[in-house]
Each structure stands twice: as C-alpha cells, then as structure tokens.
Amino acid sequence: MASPSKPPPESKNQAKGSAAALQNFPLLGLRLNKTCPYVYQTRSFPLPKSKPFRPPAQVSNSLADLEHKEKLKAAHIPATLIRIGSWQFASAHEADLVGKFYFASKKLVWEVLENGLKNKMEISWSDISAMRAIIEENKPGILEVELHQPPTFYKEIDPQPRHHSIWVSTDDFTDGEALKCRRHYLEFPPAAIDKSYVNLLNSDRRLLELSQSGFPSSAETSFCTLQHFDIEHPPRGVIATHTTHTPALTPPAETII
C-alpha cells in the first residue's frame, strides 16, 4: 500500500511565509474568534527565530507600500443594514445597500438604492474621529464609524443601463439623522468586509491608530450644539440653521444748531 505523499517543500515555505506575514501585521482593532484558521496557522508555523519581530502598529513608509496603496481598487461591499440615530435601512436585495471604500480619494461611501434611484453619502477619512469593526467567524461583520463632521449627500439622476451613475448634490435623505448623529452602524454578511477593512487600515496610519483606540471617542452622540461650536469650523449642514444676524446700527440724527 502506497504511503501518502508528503507535501512539497514549496508549500511548507509558502505556509511559513503566510504565517510570518500575519505575525508581522499591525494590530487592526478586530475581534476574532479563537477558532479562526489564522490562529491555527500562526501556532502551527511559528515565526523563525532569526527574523526580527516588527513592533505592533508599525506601518512601513517604503515606496513599494505607497505604490501598492495607489493601485488598490475601490472596494464595493454589499451591506445588510445601516443605522444612523433613529433612521435605518435594511437591504432586501444585494444591490440595495453598498458600502464603498475609495483608497485614492480617501472616502467612505454608503450607497442606498430605493425606488429605482440611488442616494449616497460620502465621508472623508479626515472626518472620522473613531472607528471599529467586530468580526467573528460565521457571524455578520459590524462596522461602526464616529464622525466629527456630517457627511455630504448626493442623488443619482437619469440612470442608464451599463452607464456610470451621474450624481448631483442633494439634501439629507435620512430624515435629518445623519446631520445630527455622529455614529454610523453597518452590518455586512459574514466575511464580506474582512479583507477590505484590513486594506483600509493598512492604507492610512491615522485610521489604523483610531481602530486601536477606544470607541466611541466621547459620550457625545450628536454633533456640537451652538455653544460648543468651533467658530472657524462649525459642522457642515447646520451653519445656516445657527447663523445669527446682527441688526445694522442706525447713526444718530444730525442736530442742527
């Protein structure tokens, strides 16, 4: 009886290389189940002693890494639920709700398809004040984002099959909740967001650091009220609401003697 064939040396080296890469990857703020196959791999193939260990949260600034970030394509991830304050939208079909990560323009986009037309909100990475993902095996992926500025809103006009969408600015389509509430909560099918979230954190040092910090960043769930405004940078979407007008002063009547 023939004995089972041994795996070629190349496959062993590849497995060891994958394990070493996982060991060296910075902390990502993910919550993983202990039965995750990555844990099995890292235990089965320990890091060679001769290779120096990279400190956690260290991000390489090499030219190769920068070129890799520029080549990353936008990630389009079907979501099942989005909730902002008291407003929420649940998808009935895969295309009804999509989360998008744009690495070149550094934006997050939540796109909603309703009544045959798309609406979307855009979030600049620089407007994110806290974020975290909860990723467990065979469970929905959860992404939570906290903002210090409201998103901007767009609607699709004149949709055409097999053509790119044409977008124009529009009003908030969340019944005003996205203009008030800082925290966005999204759910994704199991394993749908894992790779894209890793790419997101590996593309921006600040987001990586936020993912390792506490969530939320403060107990304040709504954007600043008038008395807490930063005068130079008030939140978008509420400037007109809180603009005060100083009445013009009428000069005193001239007295003729």
What does this molecule look like?
It is a single chain. The protein is α+β, with helices and mostly antiparallel strands. It has 2 domains: about 15-50, no CATH class; about 70-230, PH-domain like. It is about 20% helix and about 25% strand. The chain contains 6 helices and 11 strands. The protein has helices at about 10-25, 35-45, 65-70, 175-180, 195-205, 205-210; strands at about 75-80, 80-85, 85-90, 95-100, 105-115, 115-125, 130-135, 140-145, 150-155, 165-170, 185-190. The strands form 2 sheets. Strands 1-4-5-6-9-10 form a 6-stranded antiparallel β-sheet, with no helix packed on it. It has a 5-stranded antiparallel β-sheet with strand order 3-2-11-8-7. α5 (about 195-205) packs across α6 (about 205-210).
Please give the order of strands in the largest beta sheet: 1-4-5-6-9-10
Helical proportion, percent range: 10-25%
Gross CATH architecture of the largest domain: Roll
- First and last CA, distance: 128 Å
Q: Kindly name the structural category.
A: alpha+beta
